[in-house]
């Protein structure tokens, strides 16, 4: 597949690029700063582009099979995430290209309750602003009338780790293990994302992923 990745140099984006290259996809990494970042793996195309600029989104999605967004605004600008998401949705609506967004766990509900994770101890108060922005990001997707979007909520803890290639999927409820921990490695999140890209099962909906050994 021909895939453009926004946020390709971020924590999640680098794992997504690595996983996509491993599977032989044709990857274009879009970064805001001009010039190819030294960290981009060989075999990755590079283009300059801002996910919050509709002309860039249209240009970088034209002729592609998929856009992946793993962007995160700097601290203090969290609400930019919603604006960026609306721009991505509008851009791919114009080009007819599928969009998969890496979002947040905040809007998942705590198992067995209707309490969103953001209002629970699963989300640290220090992450509240980005968590709230991610919840608004999902709402923007759900309100969009036309884009072919998929929203991937990680488990509550999303950390660098091991690529096991195994994971559990859910829909709107936080996935936790027997000890109440909700976790997925960034590497396995990338595996789940690329599996969804290759075999779509969650069009115009949200799904979540957690470590497979996290079964409660
Ligand atoms: N458990 C959870 O729910 C959880 C935990 C961690 C992360 N996340 C989510 O995962 C996503 C990615 O997080 P991360 O930790 O990988 O972020 P990160 O390491 O801070 O990387 C963010 C990337 O986004 C890029 N970016 C920001 N705004 C952009 C724009 N308008 N256009 C193009 N690129 C842009 C940045 O590039 P520049 O160099 O241009 O700024 C950077 O490459 C976020 O949505 C975050 O909320 C969720």
CATH homologous superfamily - what is it? NAD(P)-binding Rossmann-like Domain
| SSE series | EHEEHEHEHEEEEHE
Number of helices: 5
How many structural domains does the protein architecture include? 1
Amino-to-carboxy terminus distance = 35 Å
What is the β-strand count?
Answer: 10
Class computed from helices, strands and strand pairing: alpha/beta
The mean pLDDT is: 96
- How can the largest sheet be summarized? 8 strands, mixed
Rg measurement, Å: 16 Å
Enumerate the strands of the largest sheet in spatial order, edge to edge or round the barrel.
Answer: 3-2-1-4-5-6-10-8
- Unreliable sequence segments: none
Provide keyphrases for this structure.
30% helix, alpha/beta, 10 strands, 5 helices, 22% strand, 216 residues, 8-stranded mixed beta sheet, two-stranded parallel ribbon, binds NADP nicotinamide-adenine-dinucleotide phosphate, globular, single chain, Rossmann fold
Per-chain topology:
Layout: E1 2-6, H1 11-22, E2 26-31, E3 45-48, H2 54-61, E4 66-69, H3 80-95, E5 98-102, H4 128-143, E6 149-154, E7 157-159, E8 167-170, E9 183-185, H5 186-198, E10 205-211
Parallel strand pairs: 1-2, 1-4, 2-3, 4-5, 5-6, 6-10, 7-9
Antiparallel strand pairs: 8-10
Quick recap of the structure?
With 216 residues, the chain is of the alpha/beta class. Helices cover 30% and strands 22% of the residues.
Overview of the structural elements:
The chain has one domain (2-211): Rossmann fold (3-Layer(aba) Sandwich). It has five helices and ten strands. The chain has helices spanning 11-22, 54-61, 80-95, 128-143, 186-198; strands at 2-6, 26-31, 45-48, 66-69, 98-102, 149-154, 157-159, 167-170, 183-185, 205-211. It has an eight-stranded mixed β-sheet, with helices on both faces. Strands 7-9 form a two-stranded parallel ribbon. Residues 6-7, 9-13, 31-33, 50-52, 70-73, 84, 102-105, 130, 134, 154, 156, 158 line the site of NADP nicotinamide-adenine-dinucleotide phosphate (NAP).
């Amino acid at each position: 597949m021909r895939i453009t990745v926004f946020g390709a140099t971020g924590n999640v984006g680098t794992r997504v690029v690595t996983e996509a290259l491993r599977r032989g996809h044709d990857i274009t990494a879009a970064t805001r700063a001009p010039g190819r970042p030294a960290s981009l793996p060989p075999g990755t195309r590079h283009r300059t582009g801002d996910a919050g600029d509709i002309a860039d989104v249209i240009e970088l999605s034209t002729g592609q099979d998929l856009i992946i967004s793993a962007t995160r605004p700097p601290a203090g600008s969290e609400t930019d995430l919603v604006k960026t998401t609306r721009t991505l949705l509008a851009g791919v609506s114009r080009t007819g290209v599928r969009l998969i967004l890496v979002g947040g766990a905040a809007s998942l509900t705590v198992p067995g309750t209707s309490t969103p994770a953001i209002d629970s101890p699963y989300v640290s108060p220090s992450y509240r602003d980005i968590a709230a922005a991610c919840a608004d990001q999902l709402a923007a997707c759900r309100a969009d009338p036309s884009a072919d979007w998929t929203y991937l909520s990680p488990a509550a803890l999303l950390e660098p780790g091991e690529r096991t290639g195994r994971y559990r999927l859910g829909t709107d409820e936080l996935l936790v293990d027997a000890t109440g921990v909700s976790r997925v490695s960034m590497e396995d999140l990338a595996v789940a994302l690329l599996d969804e890209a290759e075999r779509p099962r969650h069009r115009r909906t949200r799904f979540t992923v957690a470590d497979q050994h996290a079964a409660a």
